[in-house]
Specification:
The protein is an alpha/beta fold. It is about 45% helix and about 15% strand. The protein has three domains: about 120 residues, Glucose Oxidase, domain 1 (3-Layer(bba) Sandwich); about 100 residues, Orthogonal Bundle (Enzyme I, Chain A, domain 2), CATH 1.10.274; about 300 residues, Phosphoenolpyruvate-binding domains (TIM Barrel, Alpha-Beta Barrel). The relative contact order is 0.11.
Length: about 550
C-alpha cells in the first residue's frame, strides 16, 4: 500500500520514478593523537583549498545565473580565513585534520543557525564543505549525487549548492529533501532548473532505494510505493508538459480572450528567458545584496538593473526594492537582534534605520531607466499601512519613477487595499508571506505545510479583496507568489479578478494552457467554489471535480 509523506512544495510540477538517496557523509575514524601539528594543519588547509577550487570551477560552468552566484558564495565560505583559523585552533587543541575540520565547521554552523533565517539555510552549505574536505583528508571520494544509470527521483537529507547546480536534468526527475525551506538553495536552484521539488519532507530518507514514488512540487505531497501504471501516467503527463513548454508561446489569455499577462520571477538578467513570458513580474533585487558584508555600490546596482531592463525591452519589468530581514538578514544593515525577526524590521521597514540604502537603490533604478529609455515598475515589500505606501510612492516619484506599487504580504495591506490604491498605481500579492502572516505559520515549518497551502480559502478571500479594490480603481493587481505557478489555482486567481500572474519560467506553459482552456465565466465559477470551501483540500477538490465535469472550451483566436 502506498504511503503519503508531506512537505513543502517549492518547485512546481509532478514526477514519478524510483527513489535513490544521496550517499551518507564520510564517517570520522576514532580520534588519534597528533604527533605533527604542522602536518595536520597542512592537510586540512589543502583539503579546504581543494574544496574551494572545486566549487569555484563548478560556478564557472553553472548553467543558471543563480547557481553560479550561490556556488561562488559557497567557495568563499570554504576559503574563508576565519574557518581556516578555527581549524588551526582545533589542531592545536589536539585534533587531527579530519576531526579539526569537523569541529571548526560545527562551530561556524552553530553561529549560522543562531543567526536564523537566511543564514540558517546556509548551514547546509557548510555541512557540504565539511563533508567534502573530510573525505579528501581521509582519501575518500567526494560525496555527491547517485548515478543508478537511469532516471530517478533524488532523495536527500539536504542538498548543497554544488550538488543541485550540477544535476543532470535528463536523469534527475525531481528532488525531495528532509530539510530546507522555500528560501533554501535547493528551492531556488530547483525552480531555476525546472525540477519538481519538495523540501521539509519528514522521513523522506527512510524511503528505500528503488521504491517507486510520485512527487508533487505544488502540493508538497510525496507518495511512496506506487505502481508502474501510476509512474507511466505521471511520465506521460510530464512529457506532454515538456512538449507544451517547447511550443508554448504567446500572450496569456482565457478561452474567450480575456488577457492575463504571464510574467517571470527572476533574481538577475540571467534568469530572463526570451519569449517565455510577457515580462518580469518580480525582480528580486536582494540577490545583489546577499552573502555580502558591504552593500553593492550604486554603479553595480545600475549595471544590474540596466541588464534586466535591456533583456526585456518590450515587456513589463517590476522591480522589488530590497526585501531584507527575517529569513534574509544582511550583516551590513546592522539591524538589531530580534526575538521574532519575521515580525520586526524587514522589507520596507529596514528604511526606518537605514533609509540611505533604499534611497541609493531608487536612485540606481532611476538611472538605469534613463540609460535604457525604459519605464520600470517599482514596488516596495512588506507594506502594512497607507502611510508607508504614500511615503514610498513619494520617494520613488521624486526620482522620476512613475509606475509605483506595493506588495500585499500582510493582512493589514489587504484590508486597506482600496486606500493603498489611492496612493500607488498597482498592487502585487505575495501569497507566500501573506499565507504565513494570515495563519501565523512559519513558511519554513514543514509540520504546518497544510496551513501554508495557497488554496486556503481565507488566503483567497484576502486576494479577492485586493482584486476587487483594483477593479474599483481600474488599477492592476497581480500575484507573484508560488500560487501563480499552479495551473489550476491560476484559474481561481483570475476568477477572483487578479490581472497578471508571475512565476518561474518553467511554470509558464502549464499556466498558459490551463487559462486557455477556461472561459472567464469558468474561472469565476472556480473562484466561487474555492471561496466557499472549508479548507485547502476541499477547495482544490471542488475545483478539480468541476473542471473534470466541464465541457472543454475552445480558445479564442
Amino acid at each position: 500500500m502506498a504511503e503519503i509523506l508531506r512537505g513543502i512544495g517549492v518547485s512546481p510540477g509532478r514526477a514519478a520514478g524510483p527513489a535513490f538517496r544521496m550517499a551518507r557523509p564520510p564517517v570520522l575514524p576514532p580520534p588519534a593523537p597528533v604527533t605533527d601539528a604542522a602536518e595536520e594543519i597542512g592537510a586540512a588547509t589543502r583539503a579546504l583549498a581543494a574544496v574551494a577550487g572545486h566549487l569555484e570551477r563548478q560556478a564557472a560552468t553553472a548553467r543558471e545565473g543563480e547557481a553560479r552566484d550561490i556556488l561562488e558564495a559557497q567557495s568563499f565560505m570554504a576559503a574563508d580565513v576565519t574557518l581556516r583559523e578555527s581549524v588551526e585552533q582545533a589542531v592545536h587543541s589536539g585534533l587531527a585534520a579530519a576531526h579539526a575540520i569537523d569541529a571548526a565547521c560545527a562551530h561556524h554552523r552553530e553561529a549560522l543557525l543562531a543567526a536564523g533565517g537566511y543564514f540558517a539555510d546556509r548551514a547546509g552549505d557548510l555541512d557540504d564543505i565539511r563533508n567534502r574536505a573530510v573525505a579528501l583528508v581521509l582519501g575518500l571520494p567526494m560525496p555527491g549525487v547517485p548515478d543508478p544509470g537511469h532516471p530517478y527521483v533524488l532523495v536527500a537529507d539536504d542538498l548543497a549548492p554544488a550538488d543541485t547546480a550540477s544535476l543532470d536534468t535528463d536523469t534527475v526527475l525531481a528532488i525531495v529533501t528532509e530539510k530546507g525551506g522555500p528560501t533554501s538553495h535547493t528551492a531556488i536552484l530547483a525552480r531555476g532548473l525546472g525540477l519538481p521539488a519538495v523540501v521539509a519532507c519528514r522521513d523522506a530518507t527512510g524511503i528505500p532505494d528503488g521504491t517507486l514514488i510520485q512527487v508533487d512540487g505544488v502540493t508538497g505531497e510525496v507518495e511512496a510505493g506506487i505502481g508502474e501504471d501510476a509512474v507511466a501516467a505521471v511520465r506521460r503527463e510530464a512529457e506532454a508538459a515538456r512538449e507544451r513548454a517547447f511550443t508554448s508561446r504567446g500572450a496569456g489569455r482565457t478561452a474567450d480572450g480575456h488577457p492575463v499577462p504571464l510574467l517571470l520571477n527572476i533574481g538577475s538578467a540571467l534568469d530572463v528567458r526570451p519569449g517565455a513570458a510577457e515580462g518580469v513580474g518580480l525582480f528580486r533585487t536582494e540577490f545583489l545584496f546577499l552573502d555580502r558584508h558591504d552593500p553593492p555600490s550604486a554603479e553595480e546596482q545600475v549595471a544590474a538593473y540596466t541588464a534586466v531592463l535591456r533583456a526585456v525591452p518590450d515587456g513589463r519589468v517590476v522591480i522589488r526594492t530590497l526585501d531584507a530581514g527575517s529569513d534574509k538578514p544582511l550583516p551590513f544593515l546592522g539591524l538589531p537582534e530580534e526575538s521574532n525577526p519575521a515580525l520586526g524590521l524587514r522589507g520596507l521597514r529596514t528604511g526606518r534605520v537605514r533609509p540611505e540604502v533604499l534611497d541609493t537603490q531608487l536612485d540606481a533604478i532611476a538611472a538605469a531607466a534613463r540609460a535604457c529609455g525604459a519605464e520600470p515598475w517599482v514596488m516596495a515589500p512588506m507594506v502594512g499601512t497607507v502611510g508607508e505606501a504614500a511615503g514610498f510612492a513619494e520617494r520613488a516619484r521624486g526620482r522620476g519613477l512613475r509606475r509605483v506599487g506595493v506588495m500585499v504580504e500582510v493582512p493589514s495591506a489587504a484590508l486597506q487595499a482600496r486606500r493603498l490604491l489611492e496612493e500607488v498605481d498597482f498592487l502585487s500579492v505575495g501569497t507566500n508571506d501573506l499565507g504565513q502572516y494570515t495563519f501565523a505559520a512559519d513558511r519554513q515549518h514543514g509540520d504546518l505545510a497544510d496551513l501554508l497551502d495557497p488554496w486556503q480559502p481565507a488566503l483567497l478571500r484576502l486576494v479577492a479583496m485586493c482584486a476587487e479594490a483594483g477593479r474599483e480603481a481600474s488599477k492592476p493587481v497581480g500575484v507573484c507568489g508560488e500560487a501563480a505557478a499552479d495551473p489550476l489555482l491560476a484559474t481561481v486567481l483570475v476568477g477572483l479578478g487578479v490581472t497578471s500572474l508571475s512565476m518561474a519560467a518553467a511554470s509558464v506553459p502549464g499556466v498558459r494552457e490551463a487559462l486557455g482552456r477556461c472561459s472567464m465565466a469558468r474561472c469565476e465559477a472556480n473562484a466561487r467554489l474555492a471561496l466557499s470551501a472549508d479548507d485547502a483540500v476541499a477547495a482544490r477538490t471542488a475545483v478539480t471535480d468541476a473542471m473534470a465535469r466541464a465541457v472543454p472550451e475552445r480558445a479564442a483566436t
